[in-house]
Write a structure and sequence with these properties.
The protein is mainly α. It is about 75% helix and about 0% strand. It holds the Pfam family BPD_transp_2.
């Protein structure tokens, strides 16, 4: 009889930590192998589609850092994607294509915008925070529309891509794919390290009870602002890649519907699950592409489909994966 509890303990393994460790590895291995599918008959446009999905996965991952981990619902996060895209577009138009010059300037611009808007926004809570981030996002949107020298409302077409030490590294489709994949892996690793650090623990604790965290001596607003700035810079990096992929930048990149799509990606993948944000972005854009190829009225199907999936799968795709793994192990 004494051995029964030991056996019971041995058979009840923690499933969720195992999934959290293995799922990201599986995702990145499958993404790394995808270009081989083109050689085996996979349609060529899928490589471009998944590249775009990985770029948006970086933006969704950056949002999940403040939404899922920090509990801050930002409805203007697309502004950072737009700043990154317009930064690349304007610099290229002015003849500055060097990545080692452009990228630091773009990241600095995103950091400054995030610091200023975050400092103001974090003085509010709840619905007020959502509305003020939406307002800042729309300010960036209308500012981009007013840039008549760089296309205004019509957007800006780019006739060159960014270069690295004079070499065009974004011209090859497969090469671009692996650059996007490497950037996504780097951003995921950085976000995961941040979440596991003391900084991340304080950020999570502040989401649950900010008053208790303040009593322990931490400045909650400083921690949240730090996460907001890092998140904004990461989203700006996604915008930089997006501009180089599409050879076009538009104020629409900053619009509130785009911010809403990023929130949908995070919720679809699983709020608070960093790899879930990646799955959410991939599922969102792939499903969008498949449905749009079937019917012109694809949005009528797409919207309810996402809502039903979120309602009936608590925890999004990441939660569904964990449940399936639990049943299999059980």
């Amino acid at each position: 009889m004494a051995s029964a509890p030991a056996n019971s303990a041995a058979t009840t393994r923690p499933v969720a930590p195992t999934v959290r460790r293995l799922a990201p590895l599986v995702i990145f291995i499958l993404l790394a192998l995808l270009p081989l599918g083109s050689m085996l008959g996979l349609p060529g446009h899928w490589l471009t589609l998944v590249t775009r999905a990985m770029i948006f996965a970086i933006a969704a991952l950056s949002l999940d850092l403040v939404l899922g981990i920090g509990g801050l619902i930002s409805f203007g996060h697309a502004a950072f994607v737009g700043i990154g895209a317009y930064g690349a577009g304007i610099l290229i138009t002015e003849g500055q294509t060097e990545l080692l010059v452009a990228l630091p300037v773009i990241l600095l611009a995103c950091a400054v915008f995030a610091t200023v808007t975050g400092y103001v926004s974090l003085r509010t809570r709840g619905v007020a925070f959502i509305m003020i981030t939406l307002a800042f996002g729309q300010m960036a949107f209308y500012f981009a529309q007013a840039l008549s020298a760089y296309g205004g409302d019509d957007g800006l077409t780019l006739y060159e891509k960014s270069t690295l030490l004079g070499h065009e590294i974004f011209g090859n489709r497969t090469g671009f794919y692996y650059i996007a994949l490497g950037t996504l892996a780097f951003c995921y690793g950085l976000a995961r390290r941040l979440v596991a650090s003391r900084f991340g623990r304080v950020l999570r604790a502040a989401r649950e009870n900010a008053v208790r965290v303040t009593i322990t001596g931490y400045d909650v607003n400083h921690v949240r602002l730090g996460a907001y700035v890092i998140s904004g810079m990461m989203a700006g990096l996604a915008g930089f890649l997006l501009a180089n992929q599409t050879d076009f930048v538009s104020p629409a990149y900053m619009s509130w519907p785009r911010s809403g799509e990023l929130i949908f990606m995070v919720v679809l993948g699983g709020v608070g699950s960093l790899y879930g944000a990646i799955l959410g972005a991939l599922a969102f854009l792939v499903t969008e592409d498949v449905l749009s190829s079937l019917t012109h009225n694809w949005k009528i199907i797409f919207g309810p489909l996402i809502v039903l999936f979120v309602l009936f799968t608590h925890g999004g795709i990441a939660g569904l994966v964990a449940k399936l793994r639990g049943r299999r192990d059980g």
